[in-house]
Amino acid sequence: MDVYLEIPAVTRAYVSACLLVNAAVQLGYVTPYQxxxxxxxxxxxxxxxxxxxxxxxxxxMGLHFLFHFLFLYRYSRNLEEGSFR
Length: 85
What we know:
By secondary structure, this protein is mainly alpha-helical. It is 64% helix and 0% strand. 4% of the residues are buried.
């Protein structure tokens, strides 16, 4: 828990949201089609979550997901600790 709490706040929130969304898709609670950005569905149906969930889903679990997630964590943390401190 200490390792998790020492991650900067914005990086921790974004990484946690990415893990939750990808886990929900892998467990079958939601489908990727419910997450993608669709302008018509946002305006007509009011599905506002589509504005940000498309940035949280990386695809099926695998090597691609692992590398994408690690690069996201590393660069986000470096930016938050260095440039935007």
